[in-house]
Design a protein that fits this description.
single chain, 202 residues, alpha+beta, disordered C terminus
């Protein structure tokens, strides 16, 4: 019997390659997002497997990123949501600006407010902050992203009022109400009654 090689779910090679590429391309404004970013906030027993890396980038830098990838001989895929992707052996990465979904302002803000106190491979890497990460997770409506959002809502000392205002501002009242449902499910809000804006500002 021939045993086929099992698939690898280690995102480290992709992250290392993506960071190296961005540095060489002179891209300084970006933030780590997606499932790898959730690992920053969640304990290891709640990490969901992934092998790719998601990075928020500025629309103004996207053309430069695409040209630099092509100069390296990499095949570049256009993302329907706005951005480009590379799917090579050592680099499975998505450089996302979300301009085609009209969420580019959310992504620009996530880069501006990224945490800069987290190290990967001995260097500081900007990582999307908790509130922006949860907001991004609510965009797709996919079960895996909803599950991540619920897990992230259980992070200690989360400021729910500010989070809800951010979600409402970028994604609308309906998504803010869906966030309330998740918050009730994880015990962050009382099981009954409507949420009342308490008036904090972002």
């Amino acid at each position: 019997m021939v045993i086929q090689q099992l698939p690898s779910f280690d995102p480290n090679p992709s992250l290392k390659a993506a960071l190296r590429f961005l540095k060489k391309a002179g891209i300084q404004d970006f933030a780590l997002i997606g499932r790898v970013a959730t690992w920053v906030f969640l304990p290891s027993d709640r990490h969901q497997f992934t092998k790719d890396v998601d990075l928020a980038v500025l629309t103004a830098d996207l053309g430069k990123i695409e040209k630099a990838l092509k100069r390296k001989g990499l095949k570049v895929y256009q993302l329907s949501i706005g951005g480009v992707a590379v799917r090579e052996t050592e680099l499975v990465a998505y450089f996302i600006d979300r301009r085609l979904d009209g969420l580019d302002q959310l992504f620009r803000e996530s880069i501006a407010h990224a945490r800069r106190d987290i190290e990967f491979f001995g260097e500081i890497v900007p990582v999307v902050s908790l509130n922006y990460l949860i907001t991004m997770k609510l965009v797709s409506g996919e079960p895996k992203d909803d599950l991540d959002a619920k897990s992230l809502l259980m992070v200690k000392d989360i400021n729910y009022d500010n989070l809800r205002l951010l979600v409402k501002r970028h994604l609308g009242a309906a998504t803010a109400n869906r966030l309330d449902v998740f918050a009730r499910e994880v015990g962050l809000l009382p099981p009954r009654g409507s949420y009342k804006d308490s008036g904090p500002s972002l």
